[in-house]
Known about the structure:
Distance between the termini: 61 Å
Shape: globular
Number of strands: 18
Strand content: 15-25%
Strand order of the largest sheet: 9-8-7-6-3-2-1-10
Helix content: 25-40%
Low-confidence stretches: 1-28
Largest sheet: 8 strands, parallel
Radius of gyration: 23 Å
Structural class: alpha/beta
Number of helices: 15
Amino acid sequence: MRFYTVHQLLLVALLTSSAVAQAQQATLSTIPSWALQSNVYEVNVRQYTKEGTFNAFARHLNRLKDMGVGIVWFMPINPISVVDRKGSMGSYYAVSDYTSVNPEFGTMADFKQIVQTIHGLGMKVIIDWVPNHTGGDHRWLKEQPDFFEKDSTGKAAMAKDWADTRQLNYQNPVMRDSMIAAMKFWVNNTNIDGFRCDVAWNVPGDFWSTCIAKLKKIKPLYMLAEGEDPYLAQNGFDATYPWKAFHVLVDIAAGKKNALALDSVQHLIDTSFPPHTSLLYFTSNHDENSWNKADYATMPGAVHEPFAVLSQTLPRSIPLVYSGQEEPLLRPLEFFEKDPIEFDKYKRASFYRKIMQLRSSNAALAANVKFTRLPTGNDKAVYAFYRRSGQQMVCVIVNLTGAGQTALLDAKSLQSIAVKPVKELLSGVSLPRIPAGKMVLKAWESRVYYY
Length: 451
């Protein structure tokens, strides 16, 4: 028998602990390779066309493919509860049946066909999933009343302050199994590529670790959590929301904070999340548009561009574009009534095409590629960084103020990347190298150099 000293035993314990940690990290790091340089386009089926159907939306697919969309996210496609319904059409997030299609949108066959069409165009599909609660007349309320938490009267409790919902009980193991089975149904029967999970932050982490592991045994899936608590990433999600970063961007756009605030956010992200975690950077989404005036008021007009550039180019980002932002949509969409988007001018489509196609073609913008900050001599106003992967590089310089600014780019800081000709994305200008020295930027101007 071999005997060990205390120091040797401690070393073995540390090495074992490290190996276990690495194994756990390897298990978590299962983000599909196809997602790393992709983006997400959120589809509000009800409002996307006058018809509000899958088949009517399908007419836009070639345009979205040309714009550079990689992942199509459908807001909830399930039937909507009638009991306690808000407005005449109800909230998409008050689901009455997890394994059926909202008849207003079409049939299950219609949905399967649009998934097939999207795949044929080289894009992926995720659907919005509502695991925290159901609507007021979900069939489980009668069939499985113990699937729900109870209020003081013994009835199914309302979720939060959402009167049209009922809170699911995650202490019930049968409910958990039923939820996983319903999610498997969509992967197995429609061949979707993942889920955006609504109110994921209010569902236990041990459920997510079990659920996501079982789902990913079927096929590589992209799992996106609505929430930014690190426990979501630690329990298997590939991506979370970056709410703190979004609110900082809104404050910078409003002049309440300066560009240096982004460094604090990046530090918080890097010290809070597992290395594999990606973030859904955005300038608008369905909630922010309908309730908080994004982006037509939070980042209006010319203000939009630098923040959209950041959302597409910051490290860890797999960015989001919401329905109509390419038009742009300059009003809040009704949430509980019919209120179709009017597509006509596509004023931002060219901008999005350039930046989104750069993401998909330049490996430096993959979500797992780190960045290096560049000093500008005016860092409160101008935010600059570069990212590099192999022989490809992207350098971003944005003026985050409503006034003209001057940046001074140090040649020494640029020397490792100023080694070959570059092109500036938005102007199309070609240069022998990234320009060092004085750079004059207009209000809210963005420059994206790449090779």
